[in-house]
Amino acid sequence: MLYASAAVAQDGAWLHYDPEVVTLRGKVTTIVKYGAPGYGESPEIDDLEIPIILVLPLPVRVAETMTNITHIQLVFHTSQFPDYRTYIGKEASIKGKLFEAVTGHHFTPVLLEVEAVKIISTANNTPQRSEERFLAQRAKPAKKGMPKGSLPRKPEIAQLEGDLTKVIKYGAPNYGDPETDEKLDVPLLMLLSPVDVEMVEDNVAYVQLIFPKNIRYQQYLDRSVRVTGTLSQPSEKRHFVNVVMEVKMIEPVTTKK
């Protein structure tokens, strides 16, 4: 069978880098990042890179050092997978070998070199943040890049647009041990284009959202939304990415045809 030799990721198991072969299941999506030569420092001339990301339903641990991993960049060899972008927006079981990020083109701490793909669900009823959608919404200057937004940090108000998704992270007491830790729902806003956050972080592709109790965000999951709030660096262990937003308002964004 296709996946008989693969080590399937299980809750609590440690995964290992190449040469071990693993199988991971999750949602295939994309993020937008600035690439060479400046990787965000010179957006007017930087290449735009749109890596393919596998978002896992549960975090994994890799090589006894990487814990709470929910986003893994997929590396496809186009000779083997010429239509790999047709996987975007679908749930898939993906077999391959893990390796650690080593270059500026690697946008997650752990990547997966893909050997085989099995589509689990072909349903795709929500708009996807594909490169076609991104390019359709940006101006068409002669230069490679798009002027990158620089957003104010807390206490000033900022506004972001993107796709709302949710991942599971392991929380207290150890923040990464599935045998002992509570499971936390973590809402993330996957941005349509990368932004700078003033004096906090450059080339930001997604933001963790902190909702007050009076806002029920679940109705907006897997939808395009506009979120208003204050941005800051993580200040608690429950903050799992480099930029967090305390949300004051969320509203759906209607895609224009």
3D architecture notes:
The chain is built from 1 helix and 15 strands; from the N terminus they run βββββββββαββββββ. The protein has 257 residues and is mainly beta. The chain folds into 2 domains: 7-121, Nucleic acid-binding proteins (OB fold (Dihydrolipoamide Acetyltransferase, E2P), Beta Barrel), CATH 2.40.50; 148-252, OB fold (Dihydrolipoamide Acetyltransferase, E2P), CATH 2.40.50. The strands form 3 sheets. Strands 3-6-7-9-8 form a 5-stranded mixed barrel. It has a 5-stranded mixed beta barrel with strand order 11-12-13-15-14. It has a two-stranded antiparallel ribbon with strand order 4-5. The chain is globular and about 50 Å long. Mean pLDDT is 84; it is low at 1-6, 125-131 and 134-147.
Beta percentage is over 45%
Terminal Cα span: 43 Å
CATH architecture descriptor name of the largest domain = Beta Barrel
User: Whole-number average pLDDT?
Assistant: 84
Which regions are unreliable across 5 or more consecutive residues at pLDDT < 50? 1-6, 125-131, 134-147
CATH superfamily of the largest domain: Nucleic acid-binding proteins
Shape: globular
Provide the CATH topology of the largest domain. OB fold (Dihydrolipoamide Acetyltransferase, E2P)
How much helical structure, as a percent, in the residues? under 10%
Largest beta sheet, briefly? 5 strands, mixed, barrel
Assign the structural class, choosing from mainly alpha, mainly beta, alpha/beta, alpha+beta, or little secondary structure.
mainly beta
- Count of extended strands: 15
Total separate domains: 2
Q: Could you give the order of strands across the largest sheet?
A: 3-6-7-9-8
- Helical region count? 1
